[in-house]
Amino acid sequence: MADPRNGYPMFQQAYFVNDVEAHAKKWSELYGAGPFRIAAHHKTDSFEYRGQDIEADVSYAFGYLGDIMIQFIQQHDEKPSIYRDMYKKGEEGFHHVAFLARDFEGEFKRLEDMGFDCATRLHADNVDAAYFDTRSVNGCFTEVHGDPPQAMRERWTALKRAHQLWKPGDSPFVDIR
To answer: What is the Cα–Cα distance from 138 to 98, expressed in whole angstroms?
Structure first.
């Protein structure tokens, strides 16, 4: 079973926001983060929220700040979600950390065995992911992200390279598919 302390490092910090584009611009100006790739109204192949087939309408922005991927999440509806578990309409803040797992099922079981509830489990873009409610330990959720397929790794590499080449005054957005 993979152990995040000895496997893949934490790779992402995620923030729940009211406007992914506005936050991407602010972080670009403030920290030099980005450029950001927008995934508007993202859909999954399968999605469960607390054991029910409920998928909120969300948009994402992904970019890098150094070696850490930054994700902004915007929920467009009021369906129950891991985001609404923490934030009411109009509220914003830090939401989750994520790490990659070579053995997704092993890591899933490890977190369950530690007593954490799986709040969301999904499959999208040929990869499994799960969000565990670890707020009692770290004040946020923890995402276990399965080992990404080659196409996803290539997008992340291209996004990170765009960050390395980004200069002040460049667009805070990029179209990497």
So the answer is: 12
Neighbours of 102 (CB within 10 A): 13
- Look over the chain and give the mean of its residue pLDDT values, rounded to a whole number: 93
CA 91, CA 101: separation in Å to the nearest integer?
A: 31
The whole-angstrom separation of Cα 84 and Cα 56 is: 10
Rounded Cα distance, 100 and 7, in Å: 8
Taking the whole predicted model, whether its pTM rises above 0.90 is answered as: yes
Q: Which two tokens stand for residue 23?
A: 């936050």
C-alpha closest to that of 158 among 42, 70, 35: 35
Q: How far is CA 163 from the centre of its chain?
A: 18
Is the omega angle on the peptide bond into residue 80 within 30 degrees of 0, that is, cis?
Answer: no
Residue holding tokens 């790794």?
A: 153
Q: Which two tokens stand for residue 56?
A: 């909120």
Q: Torsion-angle region of residue 138: left (phi > 0), alpha (psi -120 to 50) or beta?
A: alpha
Question: Which is nearest to 4 in space by CA: 106, 121, 99, 141?
Answer: 99
For the record, the structure tokens of 106 come out as 């092993």
Which carries the bigger pLDDT value, residue 1 or residue 48?
48
> Is residue 50's pLDDT more than 50?
yes
